[in-house]
Amino acid sequence: MSTYSVLDLSYAVSAVALAVDDAYSRYNGTTQPDDPNAGLLRHLANIVADEHRIAHIIGDDQVSDPIKELLKIVFGKSKIFGTIDTSLDGEIGFISYRGAESVLDWVACVAFFGAVPFVGVKPEAQVHAGFLLVYQIVRDSLLSNLNLLAGCKRVIVTGHSLGAAVATLCLLDLEINKQLPGTAALEGVTFASPGVFYGEDSAELFDGLKNLRVYNPKDAITHLPPVGAWHVQGGQAIPPNPHPKGIFGQHSLDATYEPGLEKVLAQYEAAGPDPFPLDPVETTVQLPDIERVVGAVPVPVGA
Fold first, then answer.
1. CA 73 to chain CA centroid, nearest Å
2. Pair 26, 46: CB distance under 8 Å
3. CA 211, CA 216: separation in Å to the nearest integer?
4. Which of 96, 109, 201, 203 is deepest in the core (most CB within 10 A)?
5. How far apart are CA 290 and CA 235, in angstroms?
6. Residues 150-198 pLDDT 10s
């Protein structure tokens, strides 16, 4: 069971979610190049898709239609899938991944994917093939820019929705293969992640690695894939949106997850006299292990 400080939750609201917002803004072309989030972060680089690899996959007659369609949905509008930012003082780095513009479309695609070994990272771990494909398409761009985080003391890998699944894979990759430059502490914070792992409990994969998964029990995306998938351990539930807009209103980062986490933070603040200790170990809250996907029955890979 993971332990997190109130300070961790506060930072997830005040900074980590903003880093994910930056990834969405740059994808949509709505952020000024040198002024992300009104000057709260320093933007260093975009994480972009390998266009040549996408073209090769889409042009290959041996590749299935769901794979091609997923790449078109995720990267058709823009090849920007994430960002690398730091805090203004340069001490904290952020690797952030966005979701897809059309939630319904990518959800329909990933239903056709099964489990594959996490080759090059943890081959004995079975992961969702669609999420792994998206990560592999942008991995070279990420690795080529990691040197920008060399001076950081702490690096947080984060994402929302599809980007949260990719962030989970990225976090494990960076940890196991020791990809980060310098001696920065590595950790993860994800919002609204679907299940990523198959076949076994994923807790041991993240032993000793801080990885907070923020989820809304009423968000349908957090219950996908419907059979056999496992979430990472250490989840923090947020209260559902009482007035969601649209079919995926419960999934919205801005309208549901950020205000929901603020409510949780307020509850923890009220529980202790010093909710923001200088040493985050001093005041901690015990977060329950995330439940397995509702209704999921683990099945053998390939069954």
1. 18
2. yes
3. 17
4. 96
5. 5
6. 999 999 999 999 999 999 999 999 999 999 998 899 999 999 998 888 8
Q: Which residue has the tokens 């894979």?
A: 169
DSSP 148-201: GGTT-SEEEEEEETHHHHHHHHHHHHHHHTT-SSTTPEEEEEEES----EESS-
Q: Is the dihedral of CA 124, 291, 214, 187 positive or negative?
A: negative
Q: Give the global pTM.
A: 0.86
Strand partners, 45: 84
Tell me the backbone φ, ψ of residue 14, rounded to 5 degrees.
-80, -25
Number of DSSP helices (H) and strands (E) in the chain, helices first: 8, 13
The amino acid sitting at 22 is D
For residue 144, the cross-strand partners are none
Rounded to whole angstroms, the Cα distance separating 237 from 240 reads: 9
Pick the CATH number of 3-286 from 3.20.20.30, 1.10.3720.10, 3.40.50.1820, 3.40.50.150: 3.40.50.1820
In this structure, are residues 175 and 209 in contact, taking their beta carbons and an 8 Å threshold? yes
Q: What are phi and psi of 119, to 5 degrees?
A: -60, 135
Q: Summarize pLDDT for 220-274 with one digit per residue, the tens.
A: 888 887 666 666 655 788 889 888 887 788 999 999 999 999 998 888 777 764 4
**203, 223, 207, 204: which is closest to 215 by C-alpha?**
223
Could you give the C-alpha distances from 139 to 59, 146, 161, 173, 287, in angstroms and in order? 21, 11, 18, 10, 31
